[in-house]
Amino acid sequence: NARVESLRAQAKKELPPRLAELAAQHGFKYNKVFIKNNISNWGSCSSLGNINLNLRLVELPSELQDYVMLHELCHLRYLNHGREFHALLESVCPGHRVLARELRAHRLTP
Fold this sequence. Notes:
The structure is a single chain. With 110 residues, this protein is mainly alpha-helical. Helix content is 52%, strand content 10%. The chain contains four helices and three strands. α1 crosses α2 (62-74).
């Protein structure tokens, strides 16, 4: 699919440098970053410290892109959605709950 490949090229160019910038800014260290074409999530973090980002992130406003990346970076410290995770996320992304609601309005479709 030409559209997917175009989005993938754009995502590979734009997302890894921004992730590196956010990680450095907030003191996170990750292993590798992968660009995926998922229909179930915007991003994920593995126990190995790898971050997966959905290539469709490039279609979202930059504040939502940053929210997803910061969310995944916080999972490097807490591989759950517990109280500590949300406290850390709020410290690096104030107002993250509003952004999470906004993100839910953007549906991932195949």
